[in-house]
Amino acid sequence: NPSSVDDTLVFFFFTWLLGTIDHNLPRRTKNEADRQAEKREIKRRLTRKLSQRPTVAELQARKILRFNEYVEVTDAQDYDRRADKPWTKLTPADKAAIRKELNEFKSSEMEVHEESKQFTRYHRP
């Protein structure tokens, strides 16, 4: 059932997102119990939203989702589908220039919360 697979993927994405958000936000004066309660509440709301999503059959009935009865399959020409890897052709000077530009961006243009600036990772020059 594609809908349940999508729901599962979305649920795992939000669960992962909750974990990363919790680690990336600066710590407030909340205690651990408050943080866990807040996390549980967000998970409960997301789970509820996912459970209320319409099924494929409902979407088809409401003419939102439509599948074609006819499926055409043709042969494709075999060719190398691998992409170029331009980063393998960079000189050490090119790499240093990229690192320098990235560090300049992080230090001057990128918006970072004051309490999180100490965690910004800069690359070696």
Structural commentary:
Keywords: Actin-binding, Cell projection, Cytoplasm, Developmental protein, Neurogenesis, Repeat. This is Phosphatase and actin regulator 4. GO terms for molecular function: actin binding; protein phosphatase 1 binding; protein phosphatase activator activity. There is one protein chain. This protein is mainly α. 54% of the residues lie in helices and 0% in strands. The protein contains four helices and no strands. The chain has helices spanning 2-24, 32-51, 56-61, 92-109. The longest helix is centred in the first third of the chain and has 23 residues, at 2-24.
Give a short summary of the structure.
The chain is mainly α. 54% of the residues lie in helices and 0% in strands. It is found in: Cytoplasm; Cell projection, Lamellipodium.
* Separation, N- and C-terminal Cα atoms: 51 Å
Number of strands: 0
Helix and strand composition category = mainly alpha
- Reading the helices and strands in chain order gives HHHH
- Which bin fits the share of residues in helices? 40-55%
**What gyration radius follows from the Cα positions, in whole Å?**
24 Å
State the oligomer: single chain
Main sheet characteristics: none
Work out the strand percent.
Answer: under 5%
**Overall pLDDT score:** 83
Q: Give the overall shape.
A: flat
GO molecular function, one term: actin binding
Main location: cytoplasm
GO cellular component, one term: lamellipodium
Subcellular location: Cytoplasm; Cell projection, Lamellipodium
